[in-house]
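Worked example 3 (structure in, sequence out).
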């Protein structure tokens, strides 16, 4: 079975694949290979996808920050034995999804005029030829492409309903919470896998969720589409924490969405309802904590006017981590 793994350039399978890629490019680029090599460094890439068949790595790709809201696609490669099966398109789509989640709605890339398979791949995936950008300007052997990803996302629309979770939802929230928490953090190389697994096992149990549902100081909101739970939020009344300058705060404890519904407005629908509930309950603001490496979530919260106000140390399993505290001032609704 083919699986796609999000990782970074420290992944040894990725490193081996780009060795094969560079050998291939040395042939297709010919005398200009040295020129292109300086722009194709593989170290320090934070957003890498590796495709596997079981434990066997078959292909890879990466994105890197190019400009505000723009990612550059790099290091696309599929082993010769795995070509012609749509694997490159799957890797490219996963990179595009990642770019959207990182609030970068546009991708651009460069390939060689002699790399006909690559050109067909990008055209098939709706990339448009553009004037050569950056270091490739005036380079006759280069052809550059661009794709606006936000248009693709806007074509999709799902109807989301929000309801309060009740005592009968403990098992549903346990499964949803475990799945979404795992998917949100397992892609980060900085997250210790064993500690994440320990936390998931201890935290997301039916008994724990039943107790939380019975706590009068907190409530859960469930986002549903066509009868399926696709995301949830939890809010709880607390006294605040260092750095939070709110008189009567409420904490946004969790807000998660199933991976296949990312970019379809689930998070926005949940956030709108959280703000409304906080205002209706006469809270003057909301605060939350977010892992320091989770820049995707931090960018999402900033769009909703949350501002960082402190850093705190936390423990997940046995791992010592650090969270960013963010707060948002709101006006109560009469």
């Amino acid at each position: 079975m083919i699986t796609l793994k999000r990782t970074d350039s420290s992944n040894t399978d990725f490193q081996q694949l780009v060795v094969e890629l560079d050998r291939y490019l040395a042939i297709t680029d010919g005398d200009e290979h040295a020129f292109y090599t300086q722009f194709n460094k593989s170290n320090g890439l934070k957003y890498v996808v590796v495709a596997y068949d079981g434990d066997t790595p078959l292909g890879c790709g990466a994105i890197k920050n190019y400009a505000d809201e723009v990612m550059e696609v790099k290091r696309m490669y599929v082993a010769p034995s795995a070509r012609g099966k749509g694997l490159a398109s799957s890797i490219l789509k996963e990179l595009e999804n990642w770019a959207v989640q990182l609030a970068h709605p546009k991708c651009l890339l460069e390939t060689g005029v002699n790399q006909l398979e690559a050109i067909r791949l990008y055209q098939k995936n709706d990339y448009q030829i553009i004037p050569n950008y950056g270091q490739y300007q005036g380079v006759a052997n280069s052809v550059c492409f661009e794709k606006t990803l936000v248009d693709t996302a806007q074509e999709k629309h799902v109807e989301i309903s929000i309801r309060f979770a009740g005592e009968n939802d403990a098992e549903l929230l346990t499964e949803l919470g475990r799945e979404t928490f795992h998917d949100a953090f397992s892609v980060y190389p900085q997250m210790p896998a064993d500690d994440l697994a320990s936390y998931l096992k201890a935290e997301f149990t039916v008994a724990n969720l039943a107790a939380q549902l019975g706590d009068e100081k907190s409530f859960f909101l469930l986002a549903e589409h066509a009868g399926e739970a696709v995301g949830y939020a939890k809010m709880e009344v607390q006294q605040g924490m260092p750095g939070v300058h709110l008189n009567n705060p409420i904490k946004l404890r969790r807000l998660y969405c199933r991976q296949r519904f990312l970019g379809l407005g689930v998070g926005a629908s949940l956030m709108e309802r959280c703000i409304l509930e906080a205002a209706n309950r006469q809270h003057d603001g909301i605060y939350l904590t977010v892992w320091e490496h989770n820049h995707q979530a931090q960018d999402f919260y900033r769009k909703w006017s949350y501002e960082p106000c402190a850093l705190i140390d936390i423990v997940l399993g046995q791992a010592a981590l650090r969270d960013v505290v963010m707060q948002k001032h709101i006006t109560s609704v009469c």
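Notes: DSSP finds ten helices and 14 strands in the chain. Residues 74 and 109 are 7 Å apart (CA to CA).
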